[in-house]
Predict the 3D structure of the following.
Amino acid sequence: MRPVTVETLRLFLHILAATIWVGGQITLAALIPALRAAGTDVPMAAANAFNRVAWPAFGILVLTGIWNVEAEGDKGVAYQHTLLLKYTLVVSSGFTAFMHARVASRKAMGVFGALTGLTALAALFVGIMLAE
């Protein structure tokens, strides 16, 4: 068996947080029609419950992301450009999630929710590009 290292822990925490942030959004989006059918206040209650784990996961993603960058060191110009794209997507995902939770209209919630999901998925994809 391979040993457990600090790198193992760092990557585990980053991937675990990503499964919560990204996977949780996909799961919640898929459940919204059923939640609406259960009652008008149910989707908001579910979203609030999700936020209690999603935002800490986002914070862990940011912290372990910084840790990942520090551990990898300088890998050249192409890596730096890809990393800048990842930073942009992460900030966009956090900002649109923040806005999604604060807007009042269903249309704005839908737009910001979709943008949050898309930017989170894109950040995940670009993160895989950085790991190659």
Notes: The CA atoms of residues 9 and 64 lie 10 Å apart.
